[in-house]
């Protein structure tokens, strides 16, 4: 995998507060190599190591995108939900930004039938056929469509298990991460100072609560995906 230049700026990361970790009493000792110092009982992340990890993640994303592989971006915490949907849509990735439904990946044979149900109901709605049904039945199907849109709308075009997952919060997405590990799906994951970097393939030490921090990491990652795909189409 060839290394590329991704214009990762330390000052920009400072402004996005990527360096701010959790309180010192709430930390995982395995994150010690990624911690620069502590200030006012808060751990400060070493941004030089963040930049190296993010560059490695971008190299991998670029390489995998260039081979036409499928990405799944996962972030259900409220700070990340809208950012995940926007970044994934722009980079033509699948995403989950609401509640993670247990077994979504490990029970894929069941999960893959639900997006088809969503597309069928959406077609019924778009063609006006739902409105031709009895009111009670139409209301029930519309509620079902809303639920499918909320939880599965981001994977409605995912026809097989993803080749790689990008996760915005290790603690919040522990079930999703566990399913990826069980299935051998490589993971790129933001790891704050309370996380275990050994659980992911490429840990990116960063503030996983701040909107600006999450957005910066996602934007760099999805830019690499877009660049990889654009070169593949040449």
From TrEMBL:
Top-rank taxon, per record: Eukaryota
Alphabetically, which GO biological process terms does the record hold? translation
The keyword Cell division belongs to this UniProt entry's keyword annotation: no
User: Which keywords does the record carry?
Assistant: Chloroplast, Plastid, Ribonucleoprotein, Ribosomal protein
Q: Which GO terms describe its cellular component?
A: chloroplast; mitochondrial small ribosomal subunit
Q: Where in the cell is it found?
A: Plastid, Chloroplast
Pfam families named among the record's database cross-references: Ribosomal_S2
Keyword Plastid listed? The answer is yes
GO terms of molecular function: structural constituent of ribosome
Q: Which family does it belong to?
A: Belongs to the universal ribosomal protein uS2 family.
Q: What is the protein name stated in its UniProt record? A: Small ribosomal subunit protein uS2c
Organism the protein comes from? Keteleeria hainanensis
């Amino acid at each position: 995998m060839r290394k590329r230049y991704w214009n990762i700026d330390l000052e920009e990361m400072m402004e996005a507060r990527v360096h701010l970790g959790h309180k010192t009493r709430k930390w995982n000792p395995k994150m010690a190599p990624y911690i620069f110092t502590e200030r006012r009982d808060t751990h400060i992340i070493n941004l030089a190591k963040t930049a190296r990890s993010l560059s490695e993640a971008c190299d991998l994303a670029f390489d995998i995108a260039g081979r036409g592989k499928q990405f799944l971006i996962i972030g259900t915490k409220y700070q990340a939900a809208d950012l995940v949907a926007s970044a994934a849509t722009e980079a033509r990735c699948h995403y989950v930004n609401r509640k993670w439904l247990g077994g979504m990946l490990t029970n894929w044979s069941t999960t893959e039938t639900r997006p088809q149900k969503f597309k069928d109901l959406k077609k019924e709605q778009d063609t006006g056929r739902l409105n031709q049904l009895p009111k009670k039945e139409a209301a029930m199907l519309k509620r079902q469509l809303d639920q499918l849109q909320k939880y599965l709308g981001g994977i409605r075009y995912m026809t097989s298990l993803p080749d790689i997952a990008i996760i915005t919060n290790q603690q919040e997405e522990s079930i999703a991460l566990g399913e990826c590990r069980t299935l051998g799906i490589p993971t790129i994951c933001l790891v704050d100072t309370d996380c275990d970097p050994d659980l992911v393939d490429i840990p990116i030490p960063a503030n996983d609560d701040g909107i600006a921090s999450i957005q910066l990491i996602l934007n760099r990652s999805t830019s690499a995906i877009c660049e990889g795909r654009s070169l593949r189409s040449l």
